[in-house]
Amino acid sequence: MGKGYMTDMFKQLEEISKKLDASLQKINEQSLIIYNLNLEIKKLNKIIQEKDEKITQLLEEIDRLKNKNNKNSSNSSKPSSTNMTTPKKKTGSNIYNYRIKSIKKSGGQYGHIGHSLNKETVEKLIEKKKVEVREFSHTIKGKASKENIIKYKLGIEIKPYVEKHVFRYEENAKDTLPKEFYTDVTYDNSIKALSIELGAYNVISYDRLTDFFNVITDGVIRISKGNLVNILYEFSHKCIPTLEILEKDILDSKYTYTDETGTKFNGKNMYVRNYSNENTVIYKAHKNKGHSPIQEDNILTRFCGGIMGDHDTTLQRYGIENYECNIHVGRYLEELIQNIKNITWATKLKEFIFRMNNTKKIAISFGLKKFDKDKIKEYEKEFDSLLELAKEENKLIKSSYYKEKANKLYRRLKKYKSNHLYFIKDFEVPFDNNLSEQDLRMFKTKTKISGGFRSMEAAKHYVNTLSIIKTSIKRGINPFESIKAIFNKQILFS
Known about the structure:
Layout: H1 3-69, H2 119-127, H3 189-201, H4 206-216, H5 225-238, H6 240-251, E1 255-265, E2 268-276, E3 281-286, H7 291-297, E4 306-309, E5 321-324, H8 326-339, H9 345-365, H10 373-394, H11 400-415, H12 417-420, H13 422-425, H14 434-450, H15 456-474, H16 479-487
Helix pairs in contact: 3-5, 3-15, 3-16, 5-15, 8-9, 8-11, 9-10, 10-11, 15-16
């Protein structure tokens, strides 16, 4: 081979080497570009992931807020008084409790004795000398007749009066000046009782109550807010012996209803718990929840019957049996029905629970005291099958917020199945805890009107007072008369 050939070969190799270098450089540049792009992709993926998480959080927050805004007495524990609008009723049934629709027309039924004024009622009041009669004579146009037309007007007149008590000293006398006469002028029990009735039960503020006495007596009675507070405290102390009798009535009951509601004292949270049966209610006020206040009350700690509550696990330590409120379960199921699509178990279970109760009512109307064992087993089997359906359908719920709500309710119903179904095993066992809700409603009203209590001491005196008033109403006793009797140092309900 010649020298020229070798030179050509080297030149070709140099060119190839240059091309390779250029290609490698290009590859390196592209690799760098690809690397940077991968970094950008990772950053973008991270941003996308964060945004997806944020979107999920926002969707869950929307679900939560939607759930909060859509809550009313039909799908939560909120009282009916908080409803902005009346919930739509389902055709043929009541959305709250699936009551069987009555065929009767609305309003008073034929033969029902109404509460409107009539001549017979007034004449009985006159006969019993319960009213003062003031007679007036009139002449009207028409033919002369031996018979007079008699019409009545019923009215009321508030007149302040003064009792003058004269005490004479005698050396051998045993009595001393009564405590109520330590001051020269005091208020008698009629004013005290009226202030308790209007202030404690009708929830009139002390300011308005002061104005009321001033206006209605033309300035004769100018009772101060401090006096009104003292009257409440006096009444509370005087009703303690009666409250002890009420406690005994609760302890002797086969079942007791209990619940608690939150209110305020001096801007801070506090709680009022009731202990109720059909004839009696006792209220207790505490700063906190849990076992400590219940033990302090010392009612459930001594109670040997069944306790009806709304899934308050604190109550599981007390009583011989614990019952779950099925009305509340119905509301929680209704919440799921309104907010989750494509699930059937909530609708079916709600209908089933209220159907059992309606069947129980029909059985009671025929004189039955319980279902037979086969019927109870049939109900339990259907209950279990609906819970299995719930387990499967809950897996399909897309919203994590409502999925957790549905699963939580499923777990509760499964774990406390027997507590929810006690009412079909013993017809005396209540279906719900509505009695407690009704007994506690007053405190929501008071919180709404007055904002709560100035102190825990005031709250405790108030709940003592309301225990007497509400128990009187339950027993068909005029609460005003009960208040006057307590002020006169009488012990009631014995």
